[in-house]
Write a sequence for this structure.
């Protein structure tokens, strides 16, 4: 429960004050290592984690949290009104009544399922939905829907407070007017902005507790750009200080603030991982040690290497050119350091904007380094990595302009896929989303984790059509839930074949299977559409489409399946879908 004591809001758990010292949790898929993560979190002084939603791993997550006496803000996901900061989804709150009902029912099911679990601290309903909406009309409908969700959660569960989460203060006025059932306001705020949230509530005369539900160093969205138009990333020291000093000065001193969830306890591999996460490719970043000092006062066991200077020539260069690097690195423990270089280009599709790619380099710290510029056109952000023997990773960044005529002529800026490129293999690292449903989709069920009938490995795709009539279609696409309005997909140029294994539970099922779906009447289309019509058998069989002469520069629909009823329900199985 939450209550006010001597003009200060406090949360109590089992009658004892509970100061939220939290992190957002990014390892929900790594179930086998839950104990390792929660033991580590305990050592950092963390007493609660935040999730954004629930899935099949949630029971194990809650059980693991309970074993280490760590509480959970359990997320209840509500869809966004337009593509934005969180994802590329777009939901119509003005017209999609059926979709709203599905979200409502899912929320109630989540609460009913987990309300009695001792690890649950509070319900975290939605995340930055107001930020990702275009009109006040939509926000009004959403606000009333949010109140319906929250008020009915209260009827189901009287023991846990309800929090809804929004970026900065974008939800305050709407919550105050239309969502009285909220007990706590969740406010995502990075950098010094977290220090003025109390003032924002006071200006509006809001007497309600809040949690800083995401926190860290100032994000890219607020960062200034350099001369090449690249957002300037804070130094590692700034990232450390933002958490330690920010927690002590901007969060724990505020009378309405119940605490913080630092973003993000996870291991990144992309642009956001460098900027905000505790680990990068499993190595310790300054944010990791900063969380421990903020919550326990303890300094790092081993210092992260410090990149004192990192500069590139102040001029544009052609791609493939080798250019000199000014790099100065220090390490408190004087350990041997391994240096590497990466780049990122913040243009194009979401996946491409986030992609971190290695750069060829030569030289040493003693003699100096050179890097070879990639085949890109425009400004690129270049990173220097310095790894010590303890497992710490120091990172610094700068930018340079690159010129390349071939890259400049690319119609769609999407990430380059490494071959072989698996569209599906054991449902691991699947590059496309199973969100394209067509025809009589109500009779369709798709399971990417089917384990009883597989060609190889542990799982296959099972497509179940539960009626005997009409036609249906299914596609794995990027971005999710998009039909050609948002840039996505992959550049799979160089692949000579597209192949898959397939079978059916019936001998009279005809199917058209291939890749590519969106035609060029849409803004963002598949640059190649190819399929084969086949009569499936009850035995696994491999099918291959030649792709050498096709334009694979933007394949946004990695697997497309069409079939129809045969008089009885049927199932199709597909496995090992690959471009190579």
């Amino acid at each position: 429960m939450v209550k006010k004591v001597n003009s200060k809001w406090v949360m109590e758990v089992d009658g004892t004050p509970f100061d939220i010292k939290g992190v957002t949790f990014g390892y929900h898929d790594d179930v086998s290592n839950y104990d390792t993560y929660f033991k580590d979190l305990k050592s950092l002084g963390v007493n609660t984690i935040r999730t954004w939603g629930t899935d099949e791993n949630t029971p194990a997550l809650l059980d693991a949290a309970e074993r280490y006496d760590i509480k959970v803000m359990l997320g209840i996901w509500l869809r966004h009104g337009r593509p934005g900061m969180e994802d590329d989804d777009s939901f119509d709150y003005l017209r999609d009544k059926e979709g709203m009902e599905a979200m409502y029912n899912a929320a109630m099911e989540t609460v009913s399922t987990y309300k009695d679990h001792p690890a649950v601290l509070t319900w975290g309903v939605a995340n930055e939905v107001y930020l990702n909406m275009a009109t006040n009309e939509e926000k009004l409908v959403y606000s009333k829907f949010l109140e319906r969700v929250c008020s009915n959660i209260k009827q189901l569960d009287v023991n846990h407070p309800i929090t809804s989460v929004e970026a900065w203060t974008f939800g305050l006025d709407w919550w105050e007017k239309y969502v009285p059932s909220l007990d706590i306001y969740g406010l995502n705020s990075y950098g010094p902005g977290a220090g003025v949230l109390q003032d924002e509530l006071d200006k509006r005369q809001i007497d309600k507790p809040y949690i800083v539900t995401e926190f860290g160093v100032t994000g890219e969205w607020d960062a200034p750009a350099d001369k090449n138009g690249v957002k300037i990333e804070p130094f590692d020291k700034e990232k450390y200080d933002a958490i330690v000093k920010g927690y002590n000065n901007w969060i724990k001193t505020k009378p309405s603030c119940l605490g913080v969830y630092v973003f993000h306890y996870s291991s990144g591999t992309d642009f956001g991982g460098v900027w905000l996460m505790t680990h990068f490719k499993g190595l310790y970043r300054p944010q990791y040690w900063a969380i421990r000092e903020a919550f326990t006062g303890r300094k790092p066991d081993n210092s992260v290497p410090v990149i004192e200077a990192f500069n590139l020539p102040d001029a544009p260069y052609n791609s493939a050119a080798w250019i000199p690097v000014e790099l100065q690195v220090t390490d408190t423990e004087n350990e041997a350091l391994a240096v590497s270089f990466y780049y990122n280009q913040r243009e194009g599709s979401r996946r491409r904007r986030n992609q971190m790619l290695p750069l060829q380099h030569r030289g040493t710290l003693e003699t100096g380094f050179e890097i070879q510029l990639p085949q890109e056109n425009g400004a690129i952000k270049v990173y220097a990595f310095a790894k010590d023997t303890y497992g710490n990773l120091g990172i610094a960044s700068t930018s340079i302009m690159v010129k390349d005529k071939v890259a400049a002529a690319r119609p769609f800026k999407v990430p380059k896929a490494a071959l072989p490129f698996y569209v599906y293999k054991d449902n691991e690292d699947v590059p496309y989303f199973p969100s394209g449903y067509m025809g009589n989709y109500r009779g369709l069920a798709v399971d990417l984790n089917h384990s009883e009938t597989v060609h190889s490995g542990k799982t296959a795709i099972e497509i179940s059509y539960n009626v005997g009539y009409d036609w249906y279609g299914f596609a794995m696409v990027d971005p999710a839930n998009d039909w050609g309005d948002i840039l996505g997909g992959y550049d799979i140029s160089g692949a000579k074949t597209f192949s898959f294994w397939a079978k059916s539970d019936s001998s009279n099922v005809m199917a058209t299977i291939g890749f590519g779906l969106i035609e060029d009447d849409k803004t963002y289309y598949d640059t190649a559409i190819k399929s084969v019509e086949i009569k499936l058998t009850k035995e696994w069989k491999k099918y291959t489409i030649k792709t050498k002469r096709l334009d694979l520069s933007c394949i946004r629909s990695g697997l497309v399946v069409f079939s129809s009823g045969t008089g009885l329900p049927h199932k199709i199985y597909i496995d090992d879908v690959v471009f190579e």
Summary: Residues 136-156 form the longest helix (21 residues). DSSP finds eleven helices and 34 strands in the chain. The longest strand covers residues 393-403.
